[in-house]
């Protein structure tokens, strides 16, 4: 678990009545987006696609934005209350939401992978 990075982005994982959740008291945009990935398998698949972007091989992924250079993924996800868009390029991810949270954040892709791996470790623990 990379606590230094989690603290840097104000992300908190919590156990409430035996359920593993995210606090939503830190960086709400990041926390809401990560919480969409509730299984280890989903996180692994997501990281595999991120690796394809980093290696310039994204043509193999369903959510490839054709004609983009460098290759990028465009994800949109709904957590039941907020619709968040994530644009992943070879060096960063940009999360944005315009209606409820009204925020945008860009995170280096290596940091994002570490955050996802920390969430995965928390889910497995």
Structural class: alpha+beta
Number of strands: 6
Largest sheet: 4 strands, antiparallel
Total number of domains: 1
Shape: globular
Strand content: 25-35%
Termini gap: 10 Å
Within the largest sheet, what's the order of strands? Answer: 3-4-5-6
Mean pLDDT value = 79
Q: Please provide the ordered H/E string of secondary-structure elements.
A: HEEHHEEEEH
If you compute it from the alpha carbons, what radius of gyration comes out, rounded to the nearest whole angstrom?
14 Å
**Unreliable spans:** 59-68
Helix content: 25-40%
Q: Tell me the number of helical segments per DSSP (H or I, 4 or more residues long).
A: 4
Provide a concise account of the structure shown:
By secondary structure, this protein is an alpha+beta fold. Helices cover about 35% and strands about 25% of the residues.
Descriptive report:
It is a single chain. The protein is α+β, with helices and mostly antiparallel strands. It has one domain. 36% of the residues lie in helices and 26% in strands. The chain has helices at residues 3-8, 28-35, 40-54, 109-124, and strands spanning 13-16, 19-22, 73-78, 83-88, 92-97, 103-108. The protein has a 4-stranded antiparallel beta sheet with strand order 3-4-5-6. Strands 1-2 form a two-stranded antiparallel sheet. α3 runs antiparallel to α4. Mean pLDDT is 79; it is low at 59-68.
């Amino acid at each position: 678990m990379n606590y230094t990075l989690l603290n840097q982005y104000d992300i908190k994982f919590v156990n409430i009545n035996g359920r593993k959740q995210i606090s939503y008291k830190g960086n709400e945009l990041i926390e809401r987006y990560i919480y969409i990935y509730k299984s280890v398998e989903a996180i692994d698949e997501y990281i595999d696609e991120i690796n394809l972007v980093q290696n310039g091989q994204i043509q193999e992924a369903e959510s490839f934005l054709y004609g983009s250079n460098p290759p990028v993924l465009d994800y949109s996800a709904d957590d039941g209350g907020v619709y968040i868009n994530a644009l992943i390029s070879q060096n960063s991810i940009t999360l944005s939401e315009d209606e409820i949270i009204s925020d945008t954040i860009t995170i280096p892709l290596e940091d994002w992978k570490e955050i996802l791996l920390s969430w995965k470790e928390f889910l497995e623990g």
